[in-house]
Amino acid sequence: MSQLSFFSAESVPPAVADLTGILAAPGQVVLVGSGSQAGARLSVVVEQVWRAEALAEMIVEAGLQPEIARTDENTPLVRTAVDARLVAIAGEWTRGAVKTVPPQWLPGPRELRAWTLASGTPEADRYLLGLDPHAPDTHSPLASAMMRVGIAPTLIGTRGSRPALRISGRRRLSRLVENVGEPPLNVDAFAQWPRI
Question: With a threshold of 0.90, does the pTM exceed it?
Fold first, then answer.
């Protein structure tokens, strides 16, 4: 039986900002409309349907409307409806059309959970948090943000199509596990979830 950590995602109230963890992963944010009609939409392509369903649940918890669809390659895609509450996030996470990491961004428990749901995978006795291969300028700032919350990662695969932050060592893995909370109730999710 596991004990709920004081720091885990389950102990923090949901907020729209939780979804920035999707942007740390290969997620995207786009502005729609302008002026008083402006809104934005977050989206991420994931590898399994359970990931899309769990992220859709986080989107609902944050008070937004989710949509699960499929890409042309038949890969699951989860996105929010266009919402004015996402405009500030779009402004912070983009410079022109390029994704960037806000200088003061720190991944809290719910942001780490969203990131893990979007692109986290085990690798032997380590854990990988996937990065956006199309936004290489975000990789080092995300590694720095992780260091500032006490989970020092190693940046790997920067020249390939699957860049990631590798988290290794019992202390770092323990910190990640206590932050992201329990896996979704799904056998596949359990196999992909970080553990010590």
Answer: yes
